[in-house]
Specification:
By secondary structure, this protein is mainly beta. It is built from two helices and 13 strands, in the order H-E-E-E-E-E-E-E-E-E-H-E-E-E-E.
């Protein structure tokens, strides 16, 4: 009898302390893409090939009471292998991506929602051409503030998700042509290496459309991904284009949020 009462008392404590549940939606995917890259610091020729991407995206409401405002965050890794048109040299690329943002949910009609907002995205990585002797590699480093629009269509048994974003303003790294990384690092010669970016020197669009489906009580999705970014500085031109298919899974995680962190009820032992 005592043990039963004790258990019920502690269940009441947990229910009062952890009265709110925050749900986070996670989406993990593996993508296979065609890539087209151009890096004038390494070569004046375009390079085309294949790529692969791994990505995680998550969204959750700002609070359990406010489900119209969502926080977004995620990360991705993009790998690419390409050759120039003559087949005389190859370029390898590895770029990591981190992002976070905010959107507000508006219901347009039954089964249709639109979510406009802003997102901060940071990219860091490198491109490499092994044949180059003096400058075999070049860093990819940028940070952008991006307007983002997401849409959800869930009607007639069909569930589609769409997302579009574009860089608006930010900061990017572009070294001066002819200056090697040894000189930049050893002599601290970073002149003209960092540039403010906006529509005049950096344009692009990133978009995707996914179709959700369920198999054996698990949620999956298949989609199409497209990214086209081009930028220029120091009389150098750069571009990165990717498009292909993604395959992923969707799941949710729950987090118990105390109703009032400053007031925890006391429990007297039986």
């Amino acid at each position: 009898m005592k043990s039963t009462i004790t258990v019920l008392m502690w269940m009441g404590v947990l229910a009062s302390v952890c009265a709110q549940v925050v749900t986070t939606e996670h989406r993990l995917h593996l993508g296979f893409t065609n890539v087209s890259m151009r890096d004038s610091y390494l070569s004046s020729m375009p390079y085309e090939g294949v790529g692969m991407s791994f990505a995680h995206a998550a969204s959750r409401s700002v609070s359990p009471e406010n489900v119209r405002d969502l926080w977004l965050y995620g990360a991705a890794l993009h790998l690419g292998v390409a050759q120039n048109p003559a087949g005389s040299a190859g370029m390898q690329s590895i770029v990591g991506e981190m992002r976070g943002g905010y959107v507000r949910v508006f219901r347009l009609r039954q089964g249709l929602w639109i979510e406009p907002g802003l997102q901060l995205q940071m990219d860091a990585g490198a491109r490499n051409i092994a044949r180059n002797v003096n400058n075999p590699a070049n860093m990819v480093l940028s940070m952008d503030v991006r307007p983002i629009v997401r849409m959800l269509f869930d009607h007639y048994g069909l569930k589609l998700r769409m997302e579009v974003s574009s860089p608006l303003v930010g900061l990017m790294f572009v070294p001066d042509y002819g200056i090697g990384y040894y000189e930049m690092v050893s002599l601290s010669n970073w002149n003209r290496a960092f540039h403010l970016s906006s529509l005049h020197n950096r344009q692009g669009i990133t978009g995707r459309i996914d179709m959700d489906f369920t198999v054996l009580d698990r949620d999956y999705y298949v989609g199409f991904y497209h990214q086209a970014i081009q930028y220029k500085a120091n009389n150098l031109f750069f571009s990165d284009k990717q498009q292909g298919l993604v395959f992923g899974m969707r799941f949710e995680s729950l987090r118990l949020k105390p109703a009032n962190r400053n007031q925890i009820p006391s429990v007297k032992p039986y």
